[in-house]
Amino acid sequence: GPRMPHLVMEFLRCDPDERQLQNKITAHLQQMGWEKEGNPGTFSLMCLMADQTLFSIVEWARTSIFFKQLKVNDQMKLLHSCWSDLLLLDIITRQVLYGKEGSLLLVTGQEIKLTDIASHAGPTLASLVQRGQELVEKLHILKVDRQEFACIKFLILFNPGGKQLEDHHYIESVQEQVEGALLEYTLCISSHLLGRFAHLLLFLSELRSLSSLAEDYLYCKHLSNEVPCNNLLIEMLHAK
Amino acid sequence: KKKDNALLRYLLDKDDTV
């Protein structure tokens, strides 16, 4: 393979194992009484999965390089402002790396046909799914790999913009280091000078705008009491 | 406001006391 920047290897090392995550969350849902082949299309099951995925995201961040050096107050500020980006990135990454066309691969390994989702979804959810699908297709064409996704996760986490951070300079310097590592990596694997890197940064901004819409959608669902009592998900929805 | 974020704080803090 291409020569990999040291930092990119470190990011990969921090990345949780997909199979372990799948087993952990499946076991948790079964413990809560959800049948594996039950009714995975329900909105509340998706919320439970999102909630459990959030736990894994916090655990990933907490044990990751750079983040664990921060004070808890800064850690909370960073996570509060990017949790929905990270959640959406998790879903999109799974589709690009392991998913099949025309279906949504869940964190538990179950698959739902996109046509089934579309037939049950209202206009807002249908449009969110459609836009997410377009992002997945773009990344498929670019053949974005695990290394790049791992870098993007850190770019999302270490976003110093608009927050009252104690360690602002440190967070800014980490962001620069991550960008540098991603740029170096994309230059190694792509002959199109800067093109690939620019595409990935564009994806990042599209992801942020979509996750912001998804967060609004979830918040509305929460206000109408349709989000089941998922501790971390609700807490994050209240954070903004 | 801190109470609202009790779970996240707990998750981030839990091993720091070990």
Interface with most residues: A-B, 15 and 11 residues
Mean pLDDT of chain B: 74
Helix count, DSSP H or I runs of 4 or more residues of chain B? 1
The structural class of chain A is mainly alpha
Specify the overall morphology of chain A. Answer: globular
Count of DSSP H/I helices of chain A:
10
Can you tell me the overall shape of chain B?
Answer: rod-shaped
What fraction strand of chain A? under 5%
Termini distance of chain A?
A: 42 Å
What's the pLDDT, averaged over the residues of chain A? 92
Topology:
The complex is a heterodimer of chains A (240) and B (18).
Chain A: H1 6-14, H2 18-31, H3 43-62, H4 72-98, E1 103-105, E2 111-113, H5 114-120, H6 123-142, H7 146-157, H8 168-189, H9 195-223, H10 231-239
Antiparallel strand pairs in A: 1-2
Chain B: H1 6-13
Structural notes for this entry:
The complex is a heterodimer of chains A (240) and B (18). By secondary structure, chain A is mainly alpha-helical. Chain A has ten helices and two strands. Chain A has a two-stranded antiparallel ribbon with strand order 1-2. The longest helix of chain A has 29 residues, at 195-223. The model of chain A has no long low-confidence stretch (mean pLDDT 92). By secondary structure, chain B is an all-alpha fold. Chain B is 44% helix and 0% strand. Chain B is built from one helix and no strands. The longest helix of chain B has 8 residues, at 6-13. Chain B is rod-shaped. The mean pLDDT of chain B is 74. Classes of the chains: A mainly alpha (240), B mainly alpha (18). Chains A and B meet through helix 3, helix 4 and helix 10 of A and helix 1 of B.
Properties at a glance:
heterodimer; A: 240 residues; mainly alpha; two-stranded antiparallel sheet; 70% helix; globular; B: mainly alpha; 1 helix
